[in-house]
GntR family transcriptional regulator (Arthrobacter psychrochitiniphilus), 448 residues
Amino acid sequence: MNTDSTPPDNDFGQNADESAYAQLRSMLASGILQPGAWLREKTLAERIGVSRTPIREALNRLAAEGLVEISRNKGAQVVSFTAGDIADLYDVRAGFEPHAALLSVPRLTEEDVERLGLLAQQMEDAVQAGRHSELSALNGAFHGIFVEQCGNRHLSIALRAILRPTMVAHTFMSYTPEELKRSMQHHAELVAAAKARDGEWAEAVMRVHILAAKNAVVTANSNP
Amino acid sequence: MNTDSTPPDNDFGQNADESAYAQLRSMLASGILQPGAWLREKTLAERIGVSRTPIREALNRLAAEGLVEISRNKGAQVVSFTAGDIADLYDVRAGFEPHAALLSVPRLTEEDVERLGLLAQQMEDAVQAGRHSELSALNGAFHGIFVEQCGNRHLSIALRAILRPTMVAHTFMSYTPEELKRSMQHHAELVAAAKARDGEWAEAVMRVHILAAKNAVVTANSNP
DNA sequence: CACCTTAATATTGCATACAACCACAATTTC
DNA sequence: GAAATTGTGGTTGTATGCAATATTAAGGTG
């Protein structure tokens, strides 16, 4: 029943539900859907090639995750953060993400470390090639590894909630070349700390990384 | 279309959607739905007096909030935490929640403080009357005030995610009378600190409160 | 008797139809 | 001419039907 207009655009998942969620999320991360933009159920359904039902489920999920906002009978729109919101975001991350790094690094598997290295490299490549819109998703995956492996289920949940908004804030867009370079160096150093299985080192680097990021974003937004 | 079997059981919200969510959540908080229990869409739909659609939306929302777990093609069940999970939960709360108290207390309105006092009183009354099943919801509302008013949107979101599981863990059930009394005293002292608009005091009491709660829950689960 | 196969049943996944609602514009009324 | 009102197009909210999948039970086979 969905084989008419387009061959199901491209399949992120096998189920309509997962597919809708994955594609919407990817659109949010890449910036195709700008903050404040309306997300019309019918439009999205046609674009993704499923009915409105899985779209609604995906939107609800994204709303629960804080990536979109739903107004009753009006629809969903991409969240848009104020500069203050984003500063707050980094405050919370500075408080808790280093701790997650401390906990997770000794627990990382070989594959985790390998994946961290790969992601860091991919971000580096994206910067070189000027494909900055890819950075949000890659960075989310990178930090996600520390968050997921910290061994405290609830800390993971809380940090996941904190990390997700960065995906739609497109913070990298406002970095200067120098700040970008510094951020990439931090990633490389986090990989090194992970390779060395040195949790304290990772914790320290993570704190530096986040405070530097906060500065980059705050200064960019305060003097336009 | 729902006026046949029962006069809509009792209306928590005006919309089917909100109503389903509110009622399910209330059932979870009160313990009517035990951890591990299956949540059948059809059964719930009939019980609440709406169709399966709003039930599904509510279940998805609850799943995103971590109160139920959905297995594809199998259905949803109430989350059940291990003793270790619950200990982890209190570790995270001990880290985050005192800070939220510090931030929120100076920002509380008169009504907020009044409401805190009322909730503390209601919990006291519930303890006296032995209606322990009501405590989870009341306690969630009490702590929720500090969380919501902390002024940092993202800290609120993260703490909301942390606070919710306590609602289904029914931790008060395992408190000794002495521990219950102590917990109630902490609540009263939090109200006092809020009245005095002393954030640091509230922060300190909150830390005490959570660490004591952790001890109560951990010792109860470790020697059965 | 144990084990595999197969049929029946229950439950979820998804699509679709219709109703309720909102926003905005054209029209009427003062 | 301004304000209130009604109409209309579009969007979301909810119910329902059918298809797909999992679970259970029964039956057959080694």
Q: What stands out?
A: The radius of gyration of chain A is 18 Å. The first helix of chain A runs from residue 16 to 30. Residues 192 and 205 of chain A are 10 Å apart (CA to CA). Chain A has a mean pLDDT of 91.
